[in-house]
Amino acid sequence: MSDPRASEMVARLQAGAAEWDIATGGGMMAPLFNAEAFATQVRVLMARKHITMREAAVEIGCGHATVSRVCNGKTPDVENYLRISKWLSEATTQEPRNG
């Protein structure tokens, strides 16, 4: 015998999913993280600083393979994302301001 509460819960979840599809245009929401844009930021900063992936990895505090993967558009793990984001942010705040 099936539990009527379980059947009710499944029906509610299905109804909620249908409402979600309607609210989001019938598909999944756009991702919050754009790995390609992140990779571009890393590559641009490396070019501005005239440093290699290995040198960037030392500054960031991660392995050079991580920098390589990120530069190739792969999503880093949370810890490395935070390290790289901090590195990018610090470089931005250290740039001289014109004006």
Quick summary:
This protein is mainly α and 99 residues long. The chain is built from 5 helices and no strands. The longest helix is centred in the first third of the chain and has 20 residues, at 4-23.
Overview of the molecule:
By secondary structure, the chain is mainly alpha-helical. The protein has a domain of 60 residues: 434 Repressor (Amino-terminal Domain), CATH 1.10.260. It is 69% helix and 0% strand. The chain contains 5 helices and no strands. Helix 3 packs across helix 4. The radius of gyration is 22 Å and the shape is elongated. The model has no long low-confidence stretch (mean pLDDT 84).
Rg result: 22 Å
Given the C-alpha coordinates, what overall shape results? Answer: elongated
By CATH reckoning, the class of the domain at 35-94 would read: Mainly Alpha
Order of helices and strands: HHHHH
CATH topology of the domain at 35-94: 434 Repressor (Amino-terminal Domain)
Number of strands: 0
The amount of beta strand, in percent, is under 5%
The CATH architecture of the domain at 35-94 can be given as: Orthogonal Bundle
Q: How many individual helices?
A: 5
Q: What distance lies between the first and last C-alpha atoms, to the nearest angstrom?
A: 76 Å
Mean pLDDT: 84
Main beta-sheet annotation: none
Query: Which spans have pLDDT < 50 for at least 5 consecutive residues?
Result: none
Helix-and-strand structural type: mainly alpha
